[in-house]
Amino acid sequence: MQIMCPNCLSQDLRTSRFRVGDLARILILQLPVRCRNCQQRGYAFLHQALRLQARKGRRRNHSGR
Predict the structure, then answer these.
(1) Rounded to an integer, what distance in angstroms lies between the CA atom of residue 23 and that of residue 28?
(2) Based on C-alpha coordinates, what's the Rg of the chain?
(3) Are 14 and 32 in contact (CB under 8 A)?
(4) What is the pLDDT of residues 39-51, one digit of tens each?
């Protein structure tokens, strides 16, 4: 199941940097994510965020960077 941005419904998300206020969410296995289209910040469960990280690696290798 793909996660979507609640603001623009895009599926183009990436993991976001951690903030001090994220600690409570991290304890319940949610990681911060950010939409690449509208820059809205939200949270995804750990298994969903790890899939985003895997896609990021494939995207980087595919583009040759």
Answers:
(1) 9
(2) 12
(3) no
(4) 999 999 998 888 8
